[in-house]
């Protein structure tokens, strides 16, 4: 209650007396802080309206922006995210985008990263490379906005790692390698924030596998970019893929495939065969499953 009274007083004060240019960002940030740390969002909205009604000029704009944030955050239905996730499971990505787009200015990280995820899936289905590139960039913009709102959301870090790699991949090998540490940091953070998410561990394993697979000419590029180039081994990659399978068994066809490929690289053909066969028996639900099954079948023919 005391915090709320202080907020009311501040709103009235800046409304009547105005605020200096240097103080404006501070005032706005202070209102946002109160929004995040007070459950009485409707009372804060009333508070901000007091400042808006009494204020003039730029002060009115500051409080009006604050009101918009409060109103948008308060207007998100509880069922919205559940509906979006159900649509994702049904692979209806354009419907997700249509559902969430009107909430893109809601200052809600859960909405924004899901918008990014839906845009990413739409990019994968795009007809031209230019369209794919633009959609991946748009998806990253959504997730970056989510990160600015909540840096402790594991899903945001997971999708940051995925989208950074896709976006910079369009700028060439050097640009992609330059982001390798950044990608890894987001993966590690996702695993730290939610250690039971198999996909995050899979992504980390894939990072190590990719680094271990880098051809000599790309290693030379990495040596130019970094004082200490990124390093990774197939054994390290295998450990992360196996851990992903441990925390979330049979969650992803490509995790099984990558375990098999790691064992192949390490010379253990029996173990490789075991996981490649498991991959071929995986129920095909999405394109990734189809790709994993085909690759596993081709690798088994060579054993």
Automatic annotation (TrEMBL):
It comes from the Eukaryota. One of its GO terms (molecular function) is microtubule binding. One of its GO terms (cellular component) is mitotic spindle pole. Pfam families: RMD1-3. The chain crosses the membrane at residues 52-74. InterPro entries: RMD1-3_a_helical_rpt, TPR-like_helical_dom_sf. Gene3D superfamilies: Tetratricopeptide repeat domain (1.25.40.10). PANTHER family: REGULATOR OF MICROTUBULE DYNAMICS PROTEIN (PTHR16056), REGULATOR OF MICROTUBULE DYNAMICS PROTEIN 1 (PTHR16056:SF16). Interacts with microtubules. This is Regulator of microtubule dynamics protein 1. It comes from Petrolisthes manimaculis. The lineage of its organism: Eukaryota, Metazoa, Ecdysozoa, Arthropoda, Crustacea.
